[in-house]
Specification:
With 145 residues, the chain is an alpha+beta fold. Helices cover 30% and strands 24% of the residues. A five-stranded mixed sheet has the order 1-2-3-4-5, sandwiched between helices. Helix 3 (91-105) links the parallel strand 4 and strand 5 (111-113).
Length: 145
């Protein structure tokens, strides 16, 4: 397995993966132009988990400036998706450990991870990796557009 940054041509595969795992979320639109914008942003990374040239998962990583930690940023990881057929191959663990290593190299003070409340298998994996869900509560509000 390897981790790489997503490329514009990955858009259709990533969209299929998101739709497969979240069929009731509307609208799901993964645009090649947006992937290109993320790739050009200095603190945003759309990562792809790949094996044998097949995309098995993805995660969106943002590094954020922190006002109380000097020059140490913090990281937000969102939209983590691993194809269910490959979760047993430790794809989630492989992806998250890669993210942690990257964040450590960038001197991040913490990694904040969001996950849908219904994803219990993912939550067990995150707990095994040392993530806690008992110290903070995350609130989210979708804004109309």
């Amino acid at each position: 397995m390897i981790i790489r940054e997503a490329e514009p041509q990955d858009a259709p595969i990533l969209e299929m993966l998101y739709r497969k795992l979240h069929p009731d979320d509307v609208p799901i639109m993964v645009w090649a132009d947006r992937i290109e914008q993320i790739a050009k942003h200095p603190d945003s990374y759309l990562l792809v988990l790949e094996e044998d040239e097949r995309i098995l998962g993805t995660a969106l990583l943002h590094l954020c400036l922190d006002v109380v930690r000097g020059d140490q940023p913090f990281a937000i990881v969102d939209q983590v998706i691993i194809d269910p057929e490959h979760q047993m191959k430790n794809g989630m663990s492989f992806l998250m450990k890669h993210i942690e290593t990257f964040c450590h190299q960038r001197k991040c003070v913490k990694v904040i991870l969001t996950s849908q409340i219904s994803q219990e298998a993912e939550h067990r994996c995150y707990t095994e990796l040392g993530y806690r869900d008992d110290s903070h509560r995350v609130y989210k509000k979708y804004l109309p557009y």
